[in-house]
Design goal:
The complex is a heterodimer of chains A (42) and B (228). Chain A has 42 residues and is an all-alpha fold. Chain A contains 1 helix and no strands. Chain A is 90% helix and 0% strand. Chain B is mainly alpha-helical. Chain B has one domain. Chain B is built from 7 helices and no strands. In chain B, helix 2 runs antiparallel to helix 3 and helix 3 packs across helix 7.
Chain lengths: 42, 228
């Protein structure tokens, strides 16, 4: 069994998880910010 | 985005990039495992960072139980969420490493099972925070976090007191690691802690923003005279 794909898979999975989490943070922050501005307009 | 935040992002990215270079290029190849052992440079620092974040969550939860202040509550939820992210990485990179080295993806030994249990405890903590709408939610979550943290030292000690498939700890245990490898692993842990601190800062800002939205909705309901 060639173990190198496992090494790359572990590193790629780590950065995919961090990337997805950062994306959810940005999305949630923008949503909260938009809601707050809408309430302030009212 | 403010300049100090941009500087912090640049520093963290530089630390992580240098850590990646050291892990994949500079670190020597292991005699027994070959290059696949390099997973250690992400697997172990992620586990240590998760432990650290769960410890901060534990301290913040105790503080909340005594003081009931919103800052410690926000710190608790922030560290629990980022800790779950790092713990998820541990639970995924572990089996990816185990398959070529042990010949199996998973085994129900004390270390692996207690780590999965720890992940489930903090997932249940986040589900409680997300879906419980009562005013007692932060209090219940703080109590869950304090009892849930009991699993964290068990995870660390499980490989000392139980016969497990998992190797011994490389620091403060029977596991041996070449000083050159240990140095790179500690460096990567530093980079991961810096990343965790940055993520916590962003998540804390989000928590404050969400609190502002909740307060504005409550204020609007009061002004309209019809609670939602």
């Amino acid at each position: 069994m060639n173990p190198i794909p496992f090494l790359y898979a572990a590193y790629i999975v780590t950065w995919v998880i961090h990337g997805v989490f950062i994306l959810t943070l940005v999305t949630r922050y923008r949503k909260a910010d938009r809601e707050l501005r809408e309430f302030q307009k009212k | 985005m403010k300049t100090p935040v941009l500087i912090a992002i640049v520093v963290v990215v530089a630390l992580l990039a240098f850590g990646l270079y050291q892990a994949l290029v500079v670190a020597p190849t292991d005699q027994l495992q070959g290059d696949v052992y390099r997973i250690i440079y992400y697997h172990v620092p992620s586990a240590w960072t998760a432990f650290l974040l769960f410890f901060v969550n534990f301290c913040a939860s105790i503080w909340y139980l005594f003081r009931r202040d919103s800052i410690s509550d926000a710190i608790a939820v922030t560290t629990a969420e980022i800790g779950v992210v790092f713990c998820t990485i541990v639970l995924i990179t572990g089996p990816i490493w185990a398959r070529p080295v042990w010949g199996i993806w998973w085994t129900w030994d004390a270390r692996l099972t207690s780590t999965l249990l720890m992940w489930l405890i903090y997932i249940s903590y986040l589900i409680l925070r997300r879906f419980s709408t009562g005013g007692q939610t932060p209090l219940l979550a703080a109590a869950l976090a304090v009892f849930g943290f009991a699993d964290v030292p068990f995870v660390y000690l499980s490989i000392r007191y139980f016969r497990t498939q998992h190797p011994q700890p490389v620091i403060g245990g029977g596991g041996k690691l070449d000083p050159g490898m240990l140095h790179i692993m500690l460096y990567n842990w530093l980079a991961f802690v810096a990343l965790a601190a940055l993520l916590c800062w962003f998540r804390y800002q989000l928590e404050r923003k969400q609190k502002d939205v909740e307060e504005t909705i409550a204020l609007e309901s009061l002004l309209e005279g019809s609670p939602r």
